[in-house]
């Protein structure tokens, strides 16, 4: 009887231990946070770098211990423009990608790389929150296996030149080596403005301006300040040629592995992050003209109508326009 009782006790103890181990193991696995690695070429002081910290902090607040967000700035993880391919290969979870990046794989997206189409930040948000945005985001999900979470205002791009030649019309840019990111869409825009578009990685722009490898670069004013390009340039020409966007995106493979609740939390955090970026970037742009003037730069507005006319004609007669969905320009223009 003693032996039988001992066996029963031992069996119960063993089962209890197994159950305890099983519960503990399950809890441990459940507690493992979802790792989200984000790569960006942005410098730490730029708003679209700071908005990633807002995204991270918002998830920490709304979903404690659920996500482990790693932010890699200064193109330290992947070079600018290579992020979409990295997400598609499963080597990267998140990035901020441009319409120019997307247009490399989905030519219809080149409509959003065209100069003088989107009017201002408010118009940009309305366009991508409309059925147009839904339609174009679905293209990215279907054709690139990337989920766009939200659009952020990257700024209105201006010309920033190392020389002091007065620029009034596109013809004044003849022979000017204007740095552009290395894609067909970016280079077309630089050439449409009248310059000699020259591809160069963002991390090499400061030195390129300093050494004369390039004569100028185009970026929104907050980026000019954050990257300190004003230290090696003499003027800013307010061409306002592109109301630029950045799309906070996630590998669809990563996104689809999230629960419905986790997806909701990620979408909400993205909305908070882009709103933070937009508010601060718009306020920043409004104050920066005086900042650059105080730094000794000549800041002025050229004949914007002449630039708009030349750029729009260049796009409408280009190969890009052949890939645009029928009526898309009218649909974008109709959104007020």
TrEMBL record:
Listed Pfam families: DctP (PF03480)
Keywords: Signal
Any one GO biological process: transmembrane transport
Segment forming the signal sequence: 1-30
KW Signal (keyword) present: yes
Transcription regulation in keyword set: no
Listed NCBIfam families: TRAP_S1
Entry protein name: C4-dicarboxylate ABC transporter
Species for this entry: Thalassospira alkalitolerans
